[in-house]
Amino acid sequence: MAKFITITKVSIDKLKEVQEYKELIPENNSYEELKNSIQQLGFLDPITVNTNYEILDGYTRYRIAKELGIKEIPVEVYQTSGREEELDIIASFNLKRRHLTKSEIILLIDKILEKKKELMKKVEELEKSSTNDKNLGMHPQPSAREEADEIRKELEAKLPPDNVIDNDTIRRYVQIKKEAPWLTNYIGDPKNGKIGIRTAYDIYLALKRKNLLDLDRRIPKSELKLLLTTREGRKIISERDDLLQLILDHKMAVSQAINKLKTEEKLAKSKKSRAKEEEDLDETEEEEGEEDESKGRQRELDENDNEEYDFVGEWQKAKEEEEKQEAKQQLTPQLNGQLLVKQEVTESKTQNDFLNDLKTKGFAELPFEIALIKIEGKCYAINVGALRDLEQGLPEKWKGLEAFLNKYSIIIPDEVEGLYVIPWKLLGRCNEWK
């Protein structure tokens, strides 16, 4: 059993990090608060070490001390019989502090149990090599139920009585670990960009239904993290097979799929809001209509009492305006027609010259800058000016282009509604020749 030796102050340079211990403890989500506290009040809790000054507990405080340039820090020294006792100390200290989520607690206990099994295996291998006993060290793989029982017993032994973790949460975690072990790397505190066990289990079930438990081998880690740790990413996994397939086929980045989903949600929300406003407006108009009808009848009665309306004068004025307009139109149709024909001929000639130059000379001068892109074996020219309009949120003139580019996910909806991100580097551009 581990034995407490003393509390003392030592040089920070004397302390040693143990990577396997450091990896057991999740990052503290109150890092800045702890740093401010140490800066103002000093060390309230000493760092726990063994007799070799290897750090067992307090890696966050150790890192802060180095950042602040603290030269000496208080330590609690424990004498242990080896790694197994040190793992128990790590578990005990972290579970008592209550800063871990339930998901992080289960993860910590499971990691410690795995470390203990590794240590036991190494001991048995040494005994096996010294005794030549081939059967020594051979253990059947525990079932999911057995593993869940191991974790539960360890939790009962180390957690305070008022901190209870239900068996279903433990069972879900073990199920994930058995069938999609890579998914446990993303379990932790959501404040640190992780997901809880319940969320991870829902993802596991969705992936299992779709035969995608090997998702970690099908897309890059950075893309996978975005897919798992964002609300929109998880919605793509569970509900949007169309977007998920594009991601798997590497035709769309996860960020693009998320932006597309956000845009669709905003449009749906906007339509729903407009429909509600129109419904409220219809009800208001119906009520006002009844009132206006009553007022209208009264107005008619009042107007009949006034002088007779000058219908003849108004008719004469309208007739004069109409005659003026007809005269103007008779003077200009021939000129307008000539201008229109001339414009059409000029545009047609320019287009024909462009195509003829390409066919006969092999090159042609363009009236504006274009970008080139190949889609499904066909080459398309795109007006750069139109792309810049879409980029700046001016799609009115380019509805056809907007629909075409959205269809093939060439442009990406920006977080600001109505704007687009243009992947200029992926487009064939006209650059000055030097």
From TrEMBL:
Keywords noted in UniProt: Coiled coil
CC terms in the record's Gene Ontology section: chromosome
GO biological process annotation, one example: chromosome segregation
Skewed-composition ranges (Acidic residues): 278-293
InterPro entries: Chromosome_partition/occlusion (IPR050336), ParB/Sulfiredoxin_sf (IPR036086), ParB_N (IPR003115), Ssol_1539-like_N_2 (IPR054524)
Coiled coil: 109-136
Keyword Signal: no
Region (Disordered): 265-306
All residue ranges annotated as the ParB-like N-terminal domain in the record: 8-95
Keyword Nucleotide-binding belongs to the record: no
The protein's name: Chromosome partitioning protein ParB
Organism of derivation: Metallosphaera prunae
